[in-house]
UniProtKB/TrEMBL annotation:
Residues 8-73 form the PRC-barrel domain. This is Photosystem reaction center subunit H. GO terms for biological process: photosynthesis, light reaction. It holds the Pfam family PRC. GO terms for cellular component: plasma membrane light-harvesting complex. It comes from Streptomyces ruber.
Length: 122
């Protein structure tokens, strides 16, 4: 997913699974806390069903539709955290594991900054 896409432009777009089967409509977009880049989309899977979180990377925007490279059944079984709330790091980790995606390791500690701030233990 390109980072220059306005997340608001994704809302209301139809979403399709890897086989081209319609899975629903993008209801909300969640941004990465650190970068502000769109990271997850909540897709409403039916009139009376819940929203399912799908990763925007490695999904693709083609025309006016979001194409998610996973089967509908896997998407439907994604952990349900409800929408309209912030995703915690633990919830994101559960979603990454559910989709079998690699999770980037945390950035290395900046020990030099700690020494400069006077927080280094002796």
């Amino acid at each position: 997913m390109h980072s220059d896409i306005d997340p608001r432009s994704l809302i209301g777009r139809k979403a399709f699974d890897r086989r081209g089967t319609r899975i629903g409509t993008v209801d909300e977009v969640y941004l990465d806390d650190a970068t502000g880049i769109p990271e997850w989309a909540a897709v409403r899977m039916g009139l009376f069903s819940r929203d399912a979180f799908v990763p925007l990377e490695p999904s693709e925007l083609a025309g006016d539709a979001l194409h998610v490279p996973f089967d509908r059944s896997l998407i439907k079984d994604a952990p349900d955290f409800g929408v309209g709330r912030h995703l915690s790091p633990e919830q994101e980790l559960q979603l990454y594991h559910h989709y079998g995606l690699d999770v980037a390791p945390p950035p290395p500690l900046d020990l030099e900054a700690d020494r400069l701030a006077g927080t280094e233990e002796v």
